Model the fold of this input.
Amino acid sequence: MSLEYNKSNITLAKNLRKSATSEERHLWYDFLSKYKIRFQRQKAIDNFIADFYCHRARLIIEIDGSQHYTKIGKQKDEFRTEILEGYDLRIIRFTNNQINTNFRGVCEYIDGAVSAFLREEGGTDK
Done:
């Protein structure tokens, strides 16, 4: 199933790839870009742009900076999560601090989640 997306977000997604945060670059270049299952970065879905997206596992990974912990940021994230879950997608969130202080644990968690989601769907993680 193909995901809907707002075509006007494509240029923004490309720009976000070029101006990724240090935490996004770290996760991408040091783990997800070489991961056994394909991930995309800055993927346009509906009217949003997901930090990282794995189609096979139907998984979105978000890296949250401080703006996500304000009242408005939390409300936006809840709305966004509700819409994206409507596409039967799962969302995992990590903080910048988790990327910076427990990178290995973050990677292990992602690997475990992808494997579990693929097993749940009857797929394989190889």
Q: What stands out?
A: Helices lie at 9-18, 22-30, 71-85, 96-101, 103-120. The chain has one domain: 9-120.
